[in-house]
C-alpha cells in the first residue's frame, strides 16, 4: 500500500475485498443500474463510437465502471487507480476475465502517484468521497481530478450524502435491505456498523455542488438516487 497509512484505505483490506462484489450490490440497491447509467451519461456527453481515455479513481473491487463503459463503447481506454492492493487485485481479475486488461492501465496508488501530463476525456469517482474524512480531503481529490481532465470534460461523481443519523428512516430502510437479503437482526447490525465505520459523507446535495464548484466544475446533474446514494455528472470548467 503506497506511502502513509490511510484509514479510508485500511477499511478495504483482503477480508473486505473478498466479500465486496456481493455486499456492494446489497448495500446499494440498484448497483448495476447506477453503473450502467453512468456509462450512458458519459456516452451521451462524449458521443458514441468515439475514442476516449477515461480516468477511473477508486477502481478496485468489481471494476464495474470499466465493465459497463467498455461494453457500451469499444473504443474507450481506461486508467484504473486504487490505493488498496487487495481491491485492485480483485478488479484486475474481473478485467482479465473479460479481456479488458489490454484496454486498461492499472495503477496501485493515489492520484498523487499517477504521472502528470495526460489530460483525460472523462473521469469517474464512484463510492470514494464519503470514505474520505473531512472537507480538505474531499476538496483535494476533486481538484486533482479537475487538473487531469480536459476543459469541458465530464466527471461522474457517485456516493453517499447526508449524515446517516440525520435520516433515521433511510437508515432503518438500509437495515431492512439487508434483512430482505436474508440477514438476521444481529447480522444487520454488524453490516450497518461496518458501513458506518469511518464514513463522512458530504452534508447534502448542495454541499456536493459546492465541493465541485470549488474544485473547478460546473453545476452537477443528478441521474441516479438510492437511499443515501446519489450519482451526478459535472463538467470541468473551460478555462
Write structural notes for this entry.
It contains 9 helices and 7 strands, in the order H-H-H-E-H-E-H-E-E-H-E-H-H-H-E-E. Strand 6 and strand 7 (229-235) form a beta hairpin. It is an alpha/beta fold. It has a single domain (7-235), classed as Rossmann fold. A 7-stranded mixed sheet has the order 3-2-1-4-5-7-6, with helices on one face. The N and C termini lie far apart (35 Å).
What's the helix and strand layout?
Layout: H1 7-10, H2 14-27, H3 31-46, E1 52-57, H4 64-72, E2 76-82, H5 85-97, E3 104-108, E4 122-126, H6 134-147, E5 154-160, H7 168-180, H8 185-196, H9 205-215, E6 221-226, E7 229-235
Parallel strand pairs: 1-2, 1-4, 2-3, 4-5
Antiparallel strand pairs: 5-7, 6-7
Helix pairs in contact: 2-5, 3-4, 6-9, 7-8
At the first level of CATH, the class is Alpha Beta
The radius of gyration computed from the alpha-carbon positions, rounded to a whole number of angstroms, is: 17 Å
Q: What strand line-up does the widest sheet have? A: 3-2-1-4-5-7-6
Count of helical regions: 9
Number of domains: 1
Give the gist of this structure.
The chain is α/β, with parallel strands linked by helices and 239 residues long. Helix content is 44%, strand content 18%. The protein has one domain: Vaccinia Virus protein VP39 (Rossmann fold, 3-Layer(aba) Sandwich).
